[in-house]
Protein: N-acetyl-gamma-glutamyl-phosphate reductase
Amino acid sequence: MVKPRVFIDGEAGTTGLQIYSRLAQCEGVTVVSIDPAKRKDVAERARLIDTVDVAILCLPDAAAREVVDLVSSPTVKILDASTAHRTHPNWTYGFPELAPGQRDAIAKAYRVSNPGCYPTGFLAAIKPLVASGIIPASFPVTINAISGYSGGGRKLMEAYAGYQDESEPDYPYGVYGLTFGHKHVQEMHQYSGLAHAPLFLPAVGAFEQGMLVQVPLPLWTLDHPPTGQQVWEVLADYYGSEPFIQVNGLGDAEALRDRKFLDTKTANGTNQVQLFVFANDDTHEVLVAARLDNLGKGASGAAVQNMNIMLGLPEHMGLG
Ligand SMILES: NC(=O)C1=CN([C@@H]2O[C@H](COP(=O)(O)OP(=O)(O)OC[C@H]3O[C@@H](n4cnc5c(N)ncnc54)[C@H](OP(=O)(O)O)[C@@H]3O)[C@@H](O)[C@H]2O)C=CC1
Ligand SMILES: CC(=O)N[C@@H](CCC(=O)OP(=O)(O)O)C(=O)O
Structure:
């Protein structure tokens, strides 16, 4: 059988390298590489894309848009890991677990956008709650999230490079996005089913990889607040058979591990979103949290999963 040919545009970057190393171990596809001297030559990249079955774009947004405009093959499927096409009406959102039918839509699509890392955690947590009506679409939602610095790509990784050797980094924790216009907000709003955009407060920590996305729900604001168990059941039912979304037990003490806090790294190296629900039914406070590897299910793992679906390959291929 002829193996599908895949080109990773931006193969040398943080996300591209991780996709390459996952696919290099796979028998199922042939990875086509560009001459390194031409890796920023847009005409050569478009020419190569026209020759493959799937092209995965791991580029800055502008470079992704530019090359897509030059592609002419009617058969090539494109998977864009950048933010450029995530809310575009002609592109299919590459989150197979988001809703019934999404996986089939990805399988049929010629243009698929890979979700952002923060939206992956947020949408995994909120979408079932809004879709089921257990929280109303009008609920004012806030998100507190922290990412490792690899989320900022090569430039942020270089900026943090010296920290490994310091016992006390200058910036162990930094909140950003303080003008509330972060590039992920539109995507989080569009696919959540919420009437209002969530208020998003991202932070970056002095660790390389991993993320935690927290959605605190002050349910006392509702006339009939659901219990923590009811919130948990909605999530557990929604993702019951999904291999890459794991719903941990309600108030799972194991999840907190020895130190009694939710850490940011336990999902690293996996393609998992790990969901947690913590609740106090007396005060009607609930926290839904998602832990994931920003470079795994938040980027390269999701890209490989989407590529597999787009090519009709086993969905687990290359995902460990
Ligand atoms: N890091 C993360 O956690 C995630 C990143 N993404 C997205 O993936 C994309 C890539 O991000 P990331 O891998 O982190 O970024 P990096 O900066 O690590 O890598 C980007 C790569 O693209 C190359 N590049 C830049 N401009 C051009 C161009 N005009 N033509 C061809 N190649 C070019 C860069 O080369 P050079 O370095 O030489 O300029 C580099 O190799 C971005 O859109 C990002 O938003 C998505 C999910 C998560
Ligand atoms: C820590 C950090 O800087 N994170 C990046 C998000 C990671 C990323 O690039 O997100 P995409 O998935 O949209 O590509 C940011 O906040 O812009």
User: Anything to note?
Assistant: The mean pLDDT is 94. The chain has ten helices and 13 strands. The domain at 117-294 is CATH 3.30.360.10 (Dihydrodipicolinate Reductase; domain 2).
